[in-house]
Design brief:
The chain has 553 residues and is α/β, with parallel strands linked by helices. It folds into four domains: 164 residues, Pyruvate-ferredoxin Oxidoreductase, domain 3; 179 residues, Rossmann fold; 73 residues, no CATH class; 106 residues, Rossmann fold, CATH 3.40.50. It is built from 19 helices and 20 strands. It has an eight-stranded mixed sheet, sandwiched between helices. Strand 19, helix 18 and strand 20 form a beta-alpha-beta unit. The longest helix has 22 residues. The chain is globular.
């Protein structure tokens, strides 16, 4: 068996997310590479929530529709997902809640009542049954539970072992010699990447799918020496971040599309005042509240053009945990180096998906420091330098008068409406983009894979890179993913598309926003595959659709 998929489902509040992570870590200990897809409604309790844990003998970052083992804690899980079952798939279910004429039924609810335990512990019983059914040892089960459960561990272990004892062996899972990799969500990887680049403050108002960064960094704030702040709304978030940046702090904020709308006036302030900060923009289906717990890729144009006036910015869109870690660090570094806002375009799929994370595959650049004022002449906060970047002094420096101004200003930061000074200062701010583009030549801003001599290419951005790369490899076509989306890497994309006669663009939106950028730059798009229902592309479905577009069958 080279790969398999497990789906666990139940009502919101049943602990499905925790259970899926424990199951993934058990498989991870056996040497499998992991990807977890989470699907849940915007409800605290009720509705239907499920996770798909895909395990493979190679690195993966997407899931399949077809599953090999279904773990059902309620009837809806069986009814909604039985069509996904592969030939020879197995079913384990709570016989007190699910009616089925096949599969392995165990009275989880009865066990919970006998042990006088809360209902949520049914998932511990299910985890135990899963281990026995898959030939995983009792010792491995106990060790993983001890590492992942903080509350009532003795009771959880007792219930898990009862599930283990009542299950039967269904199919023994293969074990690999490879050392297990940590499992990180995209949000966790973003947080770690920012911290590794010297982040001082993270400021956010909770908004799915970026809330996980706030919670994660809050838990690690003492370890990293971070200030983690939750203000009353997104306007306060941005204004507080600008204040921190003006005082010399490396700062990042997190939000989703609706919150970013409220931040855009502050984003323009950042552009005019040349205050560096990072915005993590986690996309979900809109407009307005839309589908708050589902995915989308509709903010590409918004991120590139947000704010009034014209100013330089960086926009990057990582695709998995390693890219999220690396490009978050790069985004903070470049924001500091060029005194600009940098936007990390995430989405629900990459933010809340969980991946086997290989730290050794990531070579982070050194932490960037603020360009310091040499104190040789009178301090000019907005000195008109060759590359547009001014040396910095901060409040409290006895030798400098520091003026931060959102109004048009001269080099000292003094308000002006003089046309010649205005022209000079606007040119200074926009000049940064040229030098930012030159700096980005040091980085791999466009990823390619698959059959690089193929005349057919699939082009995508963000979280779609995982599913598109694997489909391209299976179909023998070229795969292209621009990670940096602004400044638009036209030169690198042209090199990546040399010899390509047919480009198929895959996006989670209705209008093909990346396709529009490519077309506007003179790159002809042959076909588009678009999805805007809040769900990500799935490997088996996308592969069939690509095959139709390529071969007409």
């Amino acid at each position: 068996m080279q790969e398999f998929s497990v789906l666990i489902g139940g009502k919101a509040g049943f602990g499905i997310d925790t259970s899926s992570l424990i199951l993934a870590r058990i498989l991870n200990q056996l040497g499998w590479y992991i990807y977890i897809y989470r699907d849940y409604p915007s409800l605290i309790r009720g509705g239907h929530t499920f996770s798909i844990i895909r395990a493979a003998d190679k690195k993966i970052s997407t899931h399949r529709n077809q599953i090999d083992l279904l773990l059902a804690l309620d009837q809806n899980t069986l009814d909604f997902h039985k069509a996904r079952l592969s030939n020879g798939a197995a079913l384990i279910y709570d016989s007190d809640s699910v009616k089925s004429s096949s599969g392995l039924g165990i009275a989880f609810t009865k066990i919970i009542k006998q042990e006088n335990a809360p209902e949520i512990m049914r998932n511990s019983c299910m985890v135990g049954a899963f281990c026995k059914a898959c030939g995983i040892s009792e010792e491995a089960l106990v060790n993983i539970l001890k590492q992942n459960i903080d509350k009532e561990i003795d009771l959880n272990l007792k219930i898990a072992l009862r599930g283990f004892q009542q299950a039967n062996l269904i199919s023994r899972i293969k074990t690999f010699d490879a050392a297990p990799l940590p499992i990180l969500s995209g949000n966790e990887a973003i947080g770690l990447g920012l911290a590794s680049a010297g982040l001082n403050s993270y400021i956010a108002y909770p908004m799915t799918p970026s809330s996980g960064i706030l919670h994660y960094l809050a838990n690690l704030s003492a370890e990293f020496g971070l200030k983690v702040v939750h203000p009353e709304n997104e306007i306060a978030v941005m204004l507080m971040a600008l204040g921190a940046a003006s005082a010399g702090e490396k700062v990042a904020v997190g939000t989703s599309g609706g919150g970013f709308c409220l931040m855009t006036e502050g984003l323009s302030f950042s552009g005019m005042a040349e205050l560096p900060l990072v915005v993590v923009l986690g996309q979900r289906t809109g407009p307005s509240t839309g589908l708050p717990t589902y995915t989308g890729q509709t903010e590409l144009n918004f991120a590139i053009w947000a704010g009034h006036g014209e100013f330089s910015r960086l926009v990057v869109a990582p695709a998995d945990a390693e890219q999220a870690f690396y490009w978050s660090a790069v985004a903070l570094n470049l924001a500091i180096k060029f005194q600009i806002p940098a936007i990390i375009l995430s989405d629900k799929t990459v933010a809340e998906g969980a991946y086997s994370f290989d730290l050794d595959s990531v070579n982070l650049p050194p932490e960037e420091q603020f360009p310091a004022w040499d104190k040789k002449d009178a301090y000019k906060r907005y000195l008109d330098s060759a590359n547009g970047v001014s040396p910095l002094a901060f409040f409290g420096d006895k030798d400098a008068i520091v003026k931060i101004n959102s109004y048009e200003h001269d080099e000292y930061g003094i308000t002006t409406e003089d046309p010649q000074v205005t022209k000079k200062m606007q040119a200074k701010r926009l000049r940064k983009e040229k030098y930012l583009s030159e700096e980005l030549r040091k980085y791999k801003v466009v990823n390619t894979a698959g059959s690089l001599d193929s005349s057919v290419a699939v082009v995508c951005w963000g979280s779609n890179a995982g599913v598109c790369a694997e489909a391209a490899r299976n179909l023998g076509i070229r795969f292209i993913q621009p990670v940096v989306l602004w400044p638009f890497p036209l030169e690198q994309i042209k090199r990546a598309t040399e010899g390509v006669k047919k480009i198929i663009c895959v996006e989670n939106n209705s209008r093909g926003q990346l396709a529009g950028l490519l077309s506007g730059a003179g790159i002809r798009i042959s076909e588009q595959i678009l999805r805007s229902d809040g769900r990500p592309f799935v490997l088996d479905e996308l592969q069939r659709e690509l095959n139709v577009r390529i071969n007409g069958e």
